[in-house]
Amino acid sequence: MPAITVDDLSVLPRLKSPGLGDQPRPVWQVTTAPTGFEGEGFPVRRAFAGIDMAHLDPFIMMDQMGEVEYAPGEPKGTPWHPHRGFETVTYIIDGTFDHQDSHGGGGTITNGDTQWMTAGAGILHIEAPPEWLVQSGGLFHGLQLWVNLPRDAKLNNPKYQDIRSAQVGLTTTSDAGVLVRVIAGAVDGAEAPVTGPGSTYTPMALVHSTLEPGSRLELPWDPEFNALGYVLNGSGTVGTDRRPVRQGQAVLFGAGDYLTIEADKTQESRSPKLDVVVVGGRPIREPLAWAGPFVMNTKAEVLQAYEDFQKGHFGHIPGHH
Fold it and tell me: In what residue span(s) does the Pirin C-terminal domain sit (predicted)?
């Protein structure tokens, strides 16, 4: 995986080990993500399908995009489409994605980069592989997470954060057997918290952990946050009761101070390590009305979003498109 790596993990700051009285988070549910297609036809796994929305709050959904090796001419993206009322977090692990919007924003993200788009009051947006990648083909793999916005931020002005892989916070376990990339939020370090560069309206954390075979991760986690894990590749166990998990499965953890993930000693040759994304946030606990690309508090607000979109209030597609 081209997402940022470190040759010698022993040089990194260490995570705080669980202390006396710290409670491990139990495993409430393990689900297997169904597969489907999105946009112009690229394959996705619906990572959190089957988990109750009340347990996902403040998140709406997460898609694993790929992992797929495209032949020349095959790479696909999305057509122009609207958003309102939430944020999209696109994390590219392998490959390259261009993005552009109706407000003049845009850019390119590649191996280990994250694009954080606050749709807010409304935006038109397109995501697609660059033309050179369409012509050559190649590996494409990433995640897109939808983060809800609280009622008082749903109509804020749209904005972008382009987070480069070199900006991501890095930490490891006491035995230097796990690389933990902190993209947003903070995790407790032995000396000081390790923070990610992502700025969020809703207090949350997003990390990508890579576990060497046989290694164990005891990840400190804010007790006010929920906690969800998703296995990108490899196999292992979660929780103190060591529930088995594998690629394409999601884990819902219960309340506690830290969560436990362990990599199997033997991994497949195609996935020599266990990669798990962990995300959690403080629940918003507001009414949710979700229809397609609009995430609001009431059905009337969703209908208003459709009307505003049809009237062109989200901006216009640039002329060269």
Answer: 207-315
